[in-house]
């Protein structure tokens, strides 16, 4: 029986590289026959290659992954890939289709591969109704779906994918923004004023014009002898100053 063939569609090269590499480990027999950077390119490559599987990023240049899925419905088994978990998981489960959250977790990918191996030689399900449902959910939850779940950051001369929940705090420097995690730090070019619009305001608080802190990582907040507030981070030596303009966030102290 010939090896199954697949295409990967994602507008971010790093995400395509990561998924391709992890698929090579989880499913060595799978052939990745093409990679697309947009929905239009995905449809062109699908017509050319006619693969049995397609890994589609939901949010990519038009048409997006949901629209691509509608057009190849019944012709190909689809795995949706998304950086946002606001899409209803129940909809995926009901639709006989799998999904992966970015960055792709190897253990979760193993589950997906196991499911695909069972389904790949059966007729693909019709995804038109499912895609319509997901599109509707996406519109209704757009403000939540827009929250970042991971970022790409520079560590030395390499790019690293960092889950938002792993970040202790962001701190602005002259040209970059420091991204501090428990085992080190990285740099991104996105300024704090843009970051604050894309991350969860209940989890990340701006405490200084140059600092945004993950409140889940805070050990305690204290006052120094001059009455200034400082934030201590669990298992991290740096203490972060709270400027006067943000002191009201901790008004009970």
How many helix segments?
8
Spans where pLDDT lies below 50 across 5 or more residues: 140-145
Question: Could you give me the name of the CATH homologous superfamily of the largest domain?
Answer: Response regulator
According to CATH, the fold-level topology of the largest domain is Rossmann fold
By DSSP, the count of extended strands is 15
- What's the CATH class label of the largest domain? Alpha Beta
The SS-based structural class is: alpha/beta
Descriptive overview:
This protein has 253 residues and is of the alpha/beta class. It has two domains: 5-145, Rossmann fold (3-Layer(aba) Sandwich), CATH 3.40.50.2300; 151-250, Beta Barrel (OB fold (Dihydrolipoamide Acetyltransferase, E2P)). The chain has eight helices and 15 strands. The chain has helices at residues 13-26, 39-49, 65-71, 89-94, 106-119, 128-140, 142-145, 192-198; strands at 5-9, 31-36, 53-57, 77-82, 98-101, 150-155, 158-163, 167-172, 177-181, 184-188, 204-208, 211-214, 218-223, 229-233, 239-242. The strands form four sheets. The protein has a five-stranded parallel beta sheet with strand order 2-1-3-4-5, sandwiched between helices. It has a five-stranded antiparallel beta sheet with strand order 10-9-8-12-11, with no helix packed on it. A three-stranded antiparallel beta sheet has the order 13-14-15, with no helix packed on it. Strand 6 (150-155) and strand 7 form a beta hairpin. The longest helix is centred in the N-terminal third of the chain and has 14 residues, at 13-26. The radius of gyration is 21 Å and the shape is elongated. The N and C termini lie far apart (69 Å).
């Amino acid at each position: 029986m010939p090896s199954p063939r697949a295409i990967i569609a994602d507008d971010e090269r790093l995400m395509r590289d990561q998924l391709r590499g992890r698929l090579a480990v989880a499913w060595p027999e799978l052939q990745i026959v093409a990679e697309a950077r947009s929905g239009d390119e995905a449809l062109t490559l699908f017509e050319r290659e006619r693969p049995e599987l397609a890994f589609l990023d939901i949010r990519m240049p038009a048409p997006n992954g949901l629209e691509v899925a509608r057009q190849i419905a019944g012709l190909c088994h689809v795995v949706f890939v998304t950086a946002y978990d606001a899409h209803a998981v129940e909809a995926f489960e009901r639709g006989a289709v799998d999904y992966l959250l970015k960055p792709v977790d190897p253990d979760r990918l193993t589950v997906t591969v196991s499911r695909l191996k069972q389904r790949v030689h059966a007729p693909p399900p019709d995804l038109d109704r499912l895609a319509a449902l997901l599109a509707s959910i996406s519109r209704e939850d757009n403000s939540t779906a827009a929250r970042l779940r991971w970022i790409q950051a520079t560590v030395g001369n390499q790019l690293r994918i960092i889950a938002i929940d792993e970040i202790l705090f962001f701190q602005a420097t002259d040209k970059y923004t420091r991204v501090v995690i428990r085992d080190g730090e990285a740099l991104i070019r996105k300024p704090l004023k843009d970051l604050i619009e894309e991350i969860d305001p209940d989890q990340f608080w701006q405490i200084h014009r140059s600092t945004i802190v993950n409140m889940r990582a805070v050990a305690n907040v204290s006052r120094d002898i001059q009455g200034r507030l400082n934030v201590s981070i669990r298992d991290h030596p740096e203490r972060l100053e709270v400027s006067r303009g943000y002191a009201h966030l901790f008004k009970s102290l």
